[in-house]
Amino acid sequence: KYALVGWDMDTTGRRLIDEICQIAAYTPKQTYSQYIMPYGDLNPGARRRHNVRVVTVGRYRMLKDTNTHKILKTKSEVSALSEFLDWLEKEKGDGSVILIYHEPRRLSPTMLLEALTRYKLLERFKSIVAGFTDSYALAADKCKATVKSVSLRVLARVLLDADSLAVDSALDRATAAYRIVEHLAQGEQQEVGAGGEGAAASKDMVETARQWARPVHTELDALATLKKLLERQNTFRPVFAPLLRSAR
């Protein structure tokens, strides 16, 4: 028995050492969203992507929404991750959770697992979550004949009739990823959302998510491979350092 949860997170960058600055999850019954105060600043790309930035007010560092100019309520990374696991534990019931996300590079699961490992929360996570389903890969397979791009915005417009989808928030992306899998699983049998607000995932949706899920141990293997690759890359730094300096 699996519980399906749409999930996404914003980070300070796209490297393995970057920190989480928002983690969010969605089910038709309830949502979870928490901003996290990172130790470092967001890189320029992340600031534009997520519309948040770190500001210093007096002696304190805060996270600010660049659209509304409001200071966001934040927690530490370890506190937010623990709270997220508490929330998932309630959602899983007697079964396990499958996290649904939408990303071409499949980097988010490895970044989440790295953060959980850092705070010794990995074993608890493994007892709750069975795997990750990438709605990008699912949509790329199911919609290859009808759409050229399977980005969230395009799929939201084509599949969900959402002309304008805000993708700067992790919660918006988590919601969209869940609904895309819901739509693709239902196919043409019935209209999306026909189960009503708060309806649980259908058997078709659970089965589709299960078939496309990558188990947690597979993502951990991918994380280990990525770490080895990064170590190998770092060994080349002394060789190419003079060239990098001269290029500047």
Name a few traits of the molecule.
248 residues; alpha/beta; Nucleotidyltransferase, domain 5; seven-stranded mixed β-sheet; 10 helices; 10 strands; globular
Number of helices: 10
- At CATH level 2, the architecture is 2-Layer Sandwich
What do the pLDDT scores average to?
86
Distance between the termini: 55 Å
**Main structural class:** alpha/beta
* Overall body shape: globular
Question: Regions with pLDDT < 50 over 5+ consecutive residues?
Answer: 188-198
CATH C-level category? Alpha Beta
Number of domains: 1
Percentage of residues in strands: 15-25%
Domain Exuperantia RNAse H-like: 2-159
GO molecular function, one term: RNA binding
Pfam family, one: Exu_RNase_H_like
Protein name: Exuperantia RNAse H-like domain-containing protein
Q: Care to describe what's here?
A:
With 248 residues, the chain is an alpha/beta fold. It has one domain: 2-Layer Sandwich (Nucleotidyltransferase, domain 5), CATH 3.30.420.10. Helices cover 46% and strands 22% of the residues. The protein is built from 10 helices and 10 strands. Strands 7-3-2-1-8-9-10 form a 7-stranded mixed sheet. Strands 4-5-6 form a 3-stranded antiparallel sheet. 34% of the residues are buried. Residues 188-198 have low confidence and may be disordered.
